[in-house]
Amino acid sequence: MTGSIEGLERFDSPGKGRGLRVTRAFKVGELLFSSRPYSYVLSVNERSCYCEFCFTRKEVLARCGKCKKAFYCNAKCQKGDWPMHKLECSAMTAFGENWCPSEMARLVARIIAKKKMQKDRCVSEKMLLIGEMQSHVEDVDNEKREMNEADIAAMHRFYSKHLEFPDQKGLLTLLSQVACNGFTVEDEELSHIGTAVYPDVALINHSCLPSVTVTYNGTSAEVRAVQDMKPGDEVLISYIDLLYSTDDRNNRLRESYYFTCDCQECKTKSKDKAKLKVRKLSDPIEPDVISNMVRYARKTIREFRLLEMCDQSLEKMGAIFDDTNVYMLHMMYQAMGVCLYMKDVDSAITYGEKVLKPFTQLYPPYSLNVSSIYLKMGRLYMVMERYSMGVSALKKALAIMEVVHGKDHYYVTELRKEITKK
Question: Where does the record place the SET domain (predicted)?
Answer without folding.
Answer: 6-240
